[in-house]
Input
Amino acid sequence: MGFQDTPEEWQVTATETPFTGNKTSVRTDEVVMPDGTVVRRDYQVHPGSVAVLALDDDNRVVVLRQYRHPVRHKLWEIPAGLLDVPGENPLHAAQRELYEEAYVKAEDWRVLTDVYTTPGGCDEAVRIFLARSLSEADGERFEVSEEEADMELARVPLQELVRGVLAGELHNNCLVVGVLSLATVLAGDGIDSLRPADAPWPARPFEA
Output
């Protein structure tokens, strides 16, 4: 198989869902270990997400600053959102999020990378897209509320974001993974080496 992650599923003898929230839930499984013992594993069940590293012609990245209550910080992030509909096409979801959060559209889309955000405690899978050839979106702006009503938008040079990540000044996982992945691609095989925007995503299968 080579040096890559592989699917595997250990036996689950019992499962329950002690908490169900608006978008996510908590599941408790009793899992059989290799030595035959059974242990309990609690984890968050998540619908999955998409994120967009939108790069303009001046090599600047579209970022937004948003309050995140669990960590008590305002974080600089890239546009992102939940896969609210089971089986939703992730590219369509990413295009929607870029419009809603940044009022931007893009002509060129590639898959930048796929990640599990916190596989020790959550099954969330995120597909991070690279979007280029940007322009202002058409139509009315999306009406935001709650934390999003306080968002700030900016365009920041890619290398400035890389510097901030390595200096420990930027912490959002999608931003960190996205900018370091893009910097690696640009220093290596180039953007044409990236997967197409409709590449299969086994973690979250979707309709074409």
In short: The two ends are 27 Å apart (CA to CA). The longest helix spans residues 173-187. The longest strand covers residues 104-116. The helical segments are 90-102, 158-166, 173-187.
